Amino acid sequence: MKTTEKHNERVANMTFASVYPHYITKVEKKGRTIEELHEVIHWLTGYNKQKLQELIENKATFQEFFQQATLNPKAYLIKGVICGYRIEEIDNPLTQQVRYLDKLIDELAKGRNMQKIFRT
Q1: Pfam families in the record, alphabetically (predicted)?
Q2: Which of 31, 114, 119, 113 is nearest to 80 (CA)?
Q3: Largest alpha-carbon pair distance within the chain?
Q4: What does the alpha-carbon distance between residue 34 and residue 32 come to, in Å, rounded to a whole number?
Q5: What is the pLDDT tens value at each position of the chain, 120 positions in all?
């Protein structure tokens, strides 16, 4: 799916710290824990709790967030629609990675089993 340059730029410049509290609210509202959220983020990016905190404190943009990440080799298996976009059709790699994260957090909030979230 074609995303506009303006949309991709907006995603790239958004800070992880500005979205992270929404992730927490979303998963906790559905009975999941922050620890599970951190597990999902770790699976996708390789970041531990300390590195996440550092990125939040430094107000890292999503561009910086994913530049420093070691993306899980199974990330390409994340498919479906999120925010009106079919993930596997997004042509901008950074926007696609952000949507991978959004999709995993959605799956967590919907009560999906962790093994399925981790594509095992």
Answers
A1: DUF2200
A2: 119
A3: 37
A4: 7
A5: 577 899 999 999 999 999 999 999 999 999 999 999 999 999 999 999 999 999 999 999 999 999 999 999 999 999 999 988 899 999 999 999 999 999 999 999 999 999 999 999
At 24, list the tokens.
């927490």
Q: Where do the structural domains in the chain lie, given as residue ranges?
A: 5-117
CB 40 within 8 A of CB 105: yes
Which residue carries 């009975």 as its tokens? 31
The number of C-alpha atoms within 13 Å of 86 and in the hemisphere containing its C-beta is 4
As given in the structure block, the two tokens for residue 33 are 């824990």
77 SS3 class: helix
Q: Is 39 buried (19+), middle (13-18) or exposed (0-12) by CB count in 10 A?
A: middle
Q: Tell me, which fold does domain 5-117 have in CATH?
A: Helicase, Ruva Protein; domain 3 (1.10.8)
